[in-house]
Write a structure and sequence with these properties.
The protein is mostly helical. It has three helices and no strands. The chain is rod-shaped and about 65 Å long.
Length: 82
């Protein structure tokens, strides 16, 4: 197919998906670190640590925005090919 993206080319939204994945992983690690004291019987972390856990959701939203941007770009490309 001639309309396929070459392997080395970055499509619109790829950067958002990568950034969202990184933010999600940071939030996931923060969640594991924050929950660990509950199982270990130590003192819990301050509330700001729990706020960092919210990065999981933020990363998911960023990645979703990247996917939607990629979909929109592919639709525009398909519409212009007609």
């Amino acid at each position: 197919m001639h309309s396929e993206t070459p392997a080395g080319a970055a499509a619109p939204g790829d950067g958002l998906v990568r950034a969202g994945g990184i933010v999600f992983v940071v939030g996931a690690v923060a969640t594991l670190v924050t929950v660990a004291p509950l199982f270990l019987g130590t003192d819990p972390f301050p509330p700001i640590a729990y706020a960092v856990c919210m990065l999981m959701g933020v990363g998911f939203l960023i990645a979703g925005a990247g996917v939607l941007r990629s979909i929109a770009a592919q639709r525009r490309q398909a519409k212009s090919a007609l």
